[in-house]
């Protein structure tokens, strides 16, 4: 069985590093002429999966917008996950779950267990309760060839005070919270190849401000939301991430989805070309 | 319309401060002779709601154990939430969601909007992306008479390095991350009465170790997991929380649920009495 890191590296090589965020916001449903219902979410999401399968290799459904519609939204999500995986896409469930012990293990079982109704290839996870708290889903993900992306440095301004707070004791004493998470994740991966435990680092984050060294990310996949709508340009990716640009899953969402059902394939293709050119230059 | 804080204070006065965690673990389903399926989860949860309605005033379903069963688990959860609320229980959805912008707003809509299929009275939330990132669900919850509990100091040892890290700039410079969250939440509540934005502080947490002052919690509801199974005794609650003991939602879960379908009412009543006596003495 191939690891998640190996699968991700293969998709990067074959289909590039662009990821489509499937974020069926109420305002997007309206713009698409769809009802704000589970049926509307299904229609937008299936079109988005089709467009992604035709152009790129990775999708990231934002689960909050399915949960808004309760169990009916989750039934749609099960379909979307299954169709996307069957189309060969790597599916990252953006759920930002986090807890301890058997509870966080249950989240791993929900999203990363083969045969689970909500099976994805990877999930996002929050380690406010410590990277040590998510050991169980990490172990479970490895056994199943799955992956995780741990929130490290996000790009929203309200996050700065927590994520740049300085750790007082232990192995990462003197590091920022964000750098401590990056360091703990680094230990979980092998430096010689792309690992299976990633981090989330916002595309508008200045790594220096967060005390994060690029060298600590050499074997770590980096999920980078915020391209397009939130201000970062795909053409700037090599400059933003430097030596670890090749590890970045570059997510675009609203800026593509707002082009509507008829425009999405072309818009996604345009973004994929832009990223490919930037990384090749 | 009464605020969540007012409703919580009324339930404290009428029915006490004990909360039953509805955590349908696989091992508990097995101990109850139930299948590890959505149907098994439904049976255990409905019995737990019945027992709670007969003895106490608050329940806290742990959503991870419903999510394990996908949309079928969520359909059961919708039923459990509705039955518990109809029985007059305050229902805290333990979801620990967190995100930014319109995404975290969608979580608020899912769990705290009247008429939503997953409507609860309050939800737990993670502020790894900053208390400022969760302003939208806070605003939404106030308008609907709902509440939130923000993770502050959890009782698992892996959490210490993040939660005691020291903030470097801004209004809470020099505070720990946990104390900064407590301080930001304090500003959101009125000191003169129980507020509607709470915090999660584990029952085995030494507040001094986390730099959290009890005085900053005077108007803040405190959700305290970890009684029973995780080592803290209900009889020690007044000593643990001192002057703010009256703000504590004391959660027991496995230690009650493992008494089985036939023992749960008696066991829950025993715990409620123990807590009432401790708080009265």
Explain what you see.
Two copies of one chain form a homodimer. With 281 residues, chain A is α/β, with parallel strands linked by helices. Chain A has a single domain (4-280), classed as TIM Barrel. Helices cover 44% and strands 16% of the residues of chain A. In chain A, strand 7, helix 10 (237-241) and strand 8 (248-252) form a beta-alpha-beta unit. In chain A, helix 3 packs parallel to helix 5, helix 3 runs parallel beside helix 12 and helix 6 (101-112) runs parallel beside helix 7 (135-143). The first copy, chain A, starts with a helix and ends with a helix. The interface between A and B is large, with 60 and 60 residues.
Query: What is the topology, as strand order, of the major beta sheet of chain A?
Result: 1-2-3-4-5-6-7-8
Q: Looking at this structure, what is the CATH superfamily of chain A?
A: Aldolase class I
- The radius of gyration computed from the alpha-carbon positions of chain A, rounded to a whole number of angstroms, is 18 Å
Quaternary structure of the protein: homodimer
Largest sheet of chain A: 8 strands, parallel, barrel
Number of helices of chain A: 12
The ordered H/E elements of chain A are HEHHEHHEHEHEHHEEHEHH
Tell me the fraction of residues in β-strands of chain A, as a range: 15-25%
Summarize the SSE layout with pairings.
The structure is a homodimer of 281-residue chains.
Chain A: H1 4-15, E1 18-22, H2 26-31, H3 38-55, E2 58-61, H4 64-67, H5 70-86, E3 90-97, H6 101-112, E4 122-125, H7 135-143, E5 147-153, H8 160-163, H9 177-188, E6 197-201, E7 222-227, H10 237-241, E8 248-252, H11 254-257, H12 260-280
Helix pairs in contact in A: 3-5, 3-12, 6-7
